[in-house]
Amino acid sequence: MTNDKPPILVFGATGRQGGAVARALRQAQWSVRALVRDTAAPRSIALNDAGVELAQGSLEDIEAIRAAMKGVHGVFSVLPGNLAQEEEVRAGVSIADIAVERGVRHFVYSSGASAGDRLTGVARFDAKPRIEAHVRSLPITATIIRPMIFMEMLARPGFGLEEGSYSFFLRPDQAMQLIAVSDIGKFVAAVFADRSRFGGETLKIAGDTVTGSDLEAVLTQAAGRPIAYARFSEETLMANPDLGHMAASLETGPLADHVDLDVMRQINPEIISFRSWLSGDGLKAFEEALGRGAA
What we know:
Blueprint (H helix, E strand, L loop, with lengths): L7 E3 L5 H12 L4 E5 L5 H8 L3 E4 L5 H7 L5 E4 L7 H17 L4 E5 L12 H14 L5 E6 L1 E2 H4 L10 E4 L6 E5 L1 H13 L1 H4 L3 E4 L2 E4 H12 L4 E4 L2 H6 L1 H12 L8 H7 L6 H6 L3 H7 L6
Parallel strand pairs: 1-2, 1-4, 2-3, 4-5, 5-6, 6-10, 7-9, 8-12
Antiparallel strand pairs: 9-11
């Protein structure tokens, strides 16, 4: 394949998810354009060195977004996780509307599997179903992806690894699905490669399924010492709306609705298991969470 197609515009390319998408698209021989706030920043320079065309602008700069979409085949829209709900909705709706105006052939919006279709009352999650509904109402070929829980989330400090334990929000016998951020990029590349198959679809994506007991076994093996697993207390879950929502979602909400991993492998044959992620892309974060940052 040669780069004879119009480019794909990637939002958030200096971040984790957008960066993974930009890398996967380049690997698949797509031309990629990235909207970046500062073209001289180290991450922007790294993108440019990797063959990504840079377009300077921000989510607040409508004219810059409009210019960045000129002549593109597709748009990948992902928004920062630190936006207020109304700010996220405004940005998500605006990006989609400009894509329609610019005649974009394939629009891909990254939502979240824990958001679901209904409002939850938790601001961090409720922007996404509102943006999804708007995207579906537009005269554009669109695909909505809903990644399951990021493996990267599990390697954050503060879950007890440095003390030889691990706490999370699922029960020892309860299953949840995970995905590596790098795999999100590969799924998105597959979506852009087959517009006729994925256009109009809402696609949950995952790479592995684990229980609380699995976490104990996998983390113990990766750490080389015992890691005891325990679910967060009810008091902790009640005090943290994000964790409480995700715990409830694993019971009867959208996180309880698992995807078929065999189907996932048909779309992305290279999906990464949590065990493999810990020894590869996630090793540095895992070592830091264990308190081995200087290793």
